Amino acid sequence: MRLITPASRSATFLAAISILYALMTAARAFGAERWVGTWEAAPAWSDRETSFANQTLREVVHTSIGGELVRVRFTNVFGDVPLTIAHATVALRSTAANAASVPFDVTFGGARSVTVPPHAQTLSDAIGMQVPAAGDLLVSIYLSGDVHDPTYHPLALQTNYIAPGDRASNVDGTAFTGEYRAWYLISGVDVAGTDASGAVVALGDSITDGAHSRPDENGRWPDVLARRLLQLPAARRLGVLNAGISGNRVLLDGRAFGINALARFDRDVIAQSGVKDVIVLLGINDIQQAPHQDNPRAIEAGLRQLAVQAHEHGLRIFGCTILPYGGWREYSPAGEAARESVNGFIRSGAVFDGVFDFDRLLRDPSDPHRMRPDYDGGDHLHPSPAGLEVMGSAIDLSKLQ
Predict the structure, then answer these.
(1) Are the beta carbons of 147 and 52 closer than 8 angstroms?
(2) Cis check: omega of the bond before 324, within 30 degrees of 0
(3) DSSP 397
(4) Backbone region of residue 256 per phi and psi (left: phi > 0; alpha: psi in -120 to 50; beta: other values)
């Protein structure tokens, strides 16, 4: 028989505390190394009407989740020549629209500047700073040389700023007298040291991109979803990454509308940090854009392939039904028949891990080929701010990982 003495009892207790402390330290270290996406702007094309030279861009990024470390993804995926970033910083947005708190220098393997090869993306080093959830970061990019045809995301619905010279470390923002509404040269922001369990990617077109939402108000339906997820216990929260590109299709490329969803799926979904779930709202542009795709089987085959690829990488994928578009200038009976067929395919449950039925949610009960007037943004294709709010509020959070 082994006697339990006060000394042995104390030693056992101390050993248990030591093990617990080691486990807690390891958990913190794991969290610090585990990157999760907090923001995304899917690269759409190169802006061949714009060039920069000896200028600093200051772009606003609205986070979904927060963390203790941050890194930025810079993109040159549609550039045909190397892109040199001479100096970049990241900072919390201050009270003025373009003013920063103390900016942190962005480095690349310890170096202050980086050259991104054509058709490539580059991740920065980790930066130690407290990143708030649902907060604004300012990413400032100084371009010392001539940059032509920069890769960009056209429909930012966010006022960004430009100044002459190297103003990346500028705090008060007074040098940034120019404004524009696009995101140039940045495609993502990740955080580490976060309690969030992962991220969900919203893959879509202009409806996901936020067309007809109010500029600078973060009223896209994925923004609404992000705010709702923040109300959950920490371990249930997810970063929300908006991979919507206006005009995007499942099957065909389009000038300034991005390459087709199948072609960009690896870059804009699979490669995103910490992604667990995918929500897909696509198909209306295949139907309504010329050349019109009136064969629903072709669209359904493309959506099925997205699901196959998501499952191959261990992701769950949810399909959203295509919204009604009666009254839009490209509406046709053949297109409507294709839309209804694709929606039946999505609702069948044969391909996706779940369905969010935006069609039933937004359609006019008295005329189901059209959106309800209060949810119609006015052109009969894009939802109004109220419609986008309803969409983001309708996602069943219990289905997300």
Answers:
(1) yes
(2) no
(3) G
(4) left
pLDDT above 90 for 102: no
59, 182: one domain: yes
Of how many residues is the chain composed?
401
Q: Is the pLDDT of residue 23 over 60?
A: no
Q: What is the pLDDT of residue 45?
A: 96
Residue range(s) defining the domain that contains residue 318: 195-399
Picking from 346, 243, 356, the residue whose alpha carbon sits closest to that of residue 304 is 346
* Contact in structure between 202 and 241 (CB atoms under 8 Å): yes
Tell how far CA 74 is from the center of its chain.
Answer: 14
The rounded distance, in Å, linking the Cα atoms of 188 and 317 is: 21
Q: How far apart are CA 222 and CA 182, in angstroms?
A: 18
* 168 shares its domain with 250: no
Which one-letter amino acid corresponds to residue 90? V
Cα–Cα distance measured from residue 382 to residue 220, given in angstroms and rounded to the nearest whole number: 11
The reported pTM is: 0.91
Q: How far apart, in whole angstroms, are the C-alpha atoms of residue 299 and residue 284?
A: 10
- Determine the average pLDDT of the residues in 271-299: 98
d(CA 380, CA 326): 6
